[in-house]
Amino acid sequence: MRLLLVRHGQTPSNLDHLLDTAVPGPGLTPLGEAQAAALPEALAGEDIEALYASTLIRTQLTAAPLAAARGLDVVVRDGIRELSAGDLEMLPGHTPQGERYLRTVFAWAAGDTALRMPGGESGEEALARYDAVVAEAAASGARSVAMVSHGAAIRVWTAARAANVDVDFAAARPLENTGVIVLEGSPADGWKALSWEGATVEPSGGSGPAGEALGATG
């Protein structure tokens, strides 16, 4: 299966760099609406057979133009919502407390899945819910699936599950709004990332730059 993980369009909380992860969350800014409207053309080369979005409003609004253009229903699933910030909810992401969020979630991607977000979920719980939606899509028989999800959730799941993406790679590359990571594989055979916002992904352990676990969430 070809899997496209798409970050939602810009929200007011993105502008303020806030950890805004709770359901239902905010809508899109005017720029976010324009980004969503541009998705059908941006993904014109993709033969998308199924389209998913999370339970947060921003992903459903982002998916709507693509759904209309392709004649697809949007399958809404809680499992691909953003990684819960728990007690850190609505804190500025650039503060020491806010940065704890990304340190925690990238620790999950590195294998410390028993670690729990303060007042929130563990890595085991977060990855399991995301895995379940991906497995559902794979079981549907669709050959190409797009999931409109969230910055931290997409990066962490990809770092945890794609054989050629490590934590340093994912941590150094925040996803822009409506940025896309393309993977191929299956739950049984594993996943390989083909591209990250249009750039080819090199094998894990290559010469890609390392970085701190900082950047876009939500």
UniProtKB/TrEMBL annotation:
Transmembrane segments: none
Class of the enzyme per the UniProt entry, highest EC level: hydrolase
Keywords carried by this UniProt record: Hydrolase
Keyword Phosphoprotein assigned: no
Chain positions covered by the region annotation Disordered: 198-218
Pfam families, per the entry: His_Phos_1
Gene Ontology molecular function: any one: hydrolase activity
Domain of life: Bacteria
Protein name: Histidine phosphatase family protein
Organism of origin: Streptomyces olivaceoviridis
Taxonomic path: Bacteria, Bacillati, Actinomycetota, Actinomycetes, Kitasatosporales
